[in-house]
Write a structure and sequence with these properties.
about 110 residues; DNA Methylphosphotriester Repair Domain; 2 domains; four-stranded mixed β-sheet; 4 helices; binds zinc ion
């Protein structure tokens, strides 16, 4: 499905939620990836890239959109990260002191 660029573009333009889960749209100009039904204004087709899963988009260096929340995130994972932080085992605790990422940016919720 995600290889059929024309169909993907049409689904994104229509914000068609029936396509949610079939593919994910990444936007090269913003570095963000979305569900097809994202309420945000669709980008130009030339700036879109399509991936078969949120994980694939993430691996390609894109961040999850805050509007449609496409991240493959589960509450148990958020708890696991919080637990690691509280024990000091999380790699973020081993970074040199200074203005680091906020807890919100480091642990987005879906
Ligand atoms: Zn979105």
């Amino acid at each position: 499905m995600y290889q059929d660029v024309e169909r993907c573009v049409r689904a994104v333009r229509a914000k068609d939620e029936r396509f949610d889960g079939w593919f994910f749209t990444a936007v090269v100009t913003t570095g963000i990836y979305c569900r097809p039904s994202c309420p945000a204004t669709p980008p130009k087709p030339a700036n879109m890239r399509f991936y078969p899963s949120a994980a694939a988009a993430q691996q390609a260096g894109f961040r999850a959109c805050k509007h449609c929340r496409p991240a493959p995130w589960r509450p148990w994972r958020a708890y696991a990260v919080q637990y690691l932080w509280s024990t000091g085992d999380h790699p973020i605790n081993q970074l040199p002191a200074g203005p680091g990422p906020t807890a919100r940016a480091a642990a987005p919720r879906a």
